[in-house]
């Protein structure tokens, strides 16, 4: 199995959302990450980044959300183009697993018309709930005609323990991480927004935009246990970590 980290866009947000002692007007730039797995039984995408149109007209797609989560990637810096660099078209994706259903994590879902989709049952319920738009869910991004299955506990994507989800609630109710067991590189635990930036886990800080800070801190314990067992933790939006990662066509195996 090979793993590729794909560039799914870039955002600017207030730094204070993530770092409690930051100044009011300080901002931070955040990478948006999608992970591709090329498994003998199929191609899997974990998260799909931002929709390509937000590079030119974020308001049309995201409405008021673009004010506090502002897309800053130039046109074509999206998962569809990142896949092309690996030699894949959207039709080549067999399975999409969404860590959660915020628009910077499922923005390209609409393109994967051949894929089987999966997310946690608590996440779908949160996205379908009344007032979900105030919780950062946009129906245009996640509600598509493709097959969507939900899971509750763990979901072993191919039944061989190589790709297994883990429920990490806190950022959202159904927030899910993915453990990848690689032959040479060992375990990678892609935790998405369960850990937005590295220092949050190191300092035991919950970002201000957490749905439930107590559950988030409990999820940090789950993540630390994997880290102590030797797993490499990949955060949702840490630019320092992103700059150090081998991304795009580079195949981790
Ligand atoms: Zn999110």
Task: Please explain how this structure is put together.
The chain is α/β, with parallel strands linked by helices and 253 residues long. It has one domain: Metallo-beta-lactamase, Chain A (4-Layer Sandwich), CATH 3.60.15.10. The protein is 24% helix and 27% strand. It contains eight helices and eleven strands. The strands form two sheets. The chain has a seven-stranded mixed β-sheet. The longest helix is centred in the last third of the chain and has 16 residues, at 213-228. The mean pLDDT is 97. Zinc ion is lined by residues 100, 102, 171, 193.
Give a concise summary:
The protein has about 250 residues and is an alpha/beta fold. The chain is about 25% helix and about 25% strand.
């Amino acid at each position: 199995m090979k793993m590729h980290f794909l560039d799914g866009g870039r955002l600017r947000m207030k730094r204070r959302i993530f770092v409690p002692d930051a100044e009011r007007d300080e901002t931070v730039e955040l990478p948006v990450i999608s992970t591709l797995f090329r498994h003998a039984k199929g191609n899997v995408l974990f998260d799909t980044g931002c929709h390509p149109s937000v590079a030119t007209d974020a308001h049309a797609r995201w409405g008021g959300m673009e004010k506090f989560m502002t897309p800053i990637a130039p046109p074509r810096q999206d998962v569809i183009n990142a896949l092309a660099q690996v030699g894949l078209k959207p039709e080549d994706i067999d399975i999409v697993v969404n860590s959660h259903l915020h628009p910077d994590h499922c923005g390209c879902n609409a393109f994967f018309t051949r894929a089987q989709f999966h997310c946690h049952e608590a996440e779908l319920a949160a996205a379908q709930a009344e007032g979900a738009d105030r919780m950062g869910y946009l129906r245009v991004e996640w509600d598509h005609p493709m097959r969507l299955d939900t899971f509750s506990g763990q979901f072993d994507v191919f039944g061989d323990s190589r790709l297994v989800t883990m429920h990490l609630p806190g950022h959202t109710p159904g927030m899910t991480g993915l453990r990848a067991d690689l032959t040479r590189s060992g375990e990678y635990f892609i935790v998405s927004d369960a850990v937005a930036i590295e220092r949050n886990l190191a300092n035991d800080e919950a970002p201000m935009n957490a749905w439930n800070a107590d559950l988030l801190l409990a999820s940090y314990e789950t993540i630390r246990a994997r880290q102590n067992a030797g797993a490499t933790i990949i955060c949702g939006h840490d630019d320092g970590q992103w700059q150090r990662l081998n991304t795009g066509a580079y195949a981790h195996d």
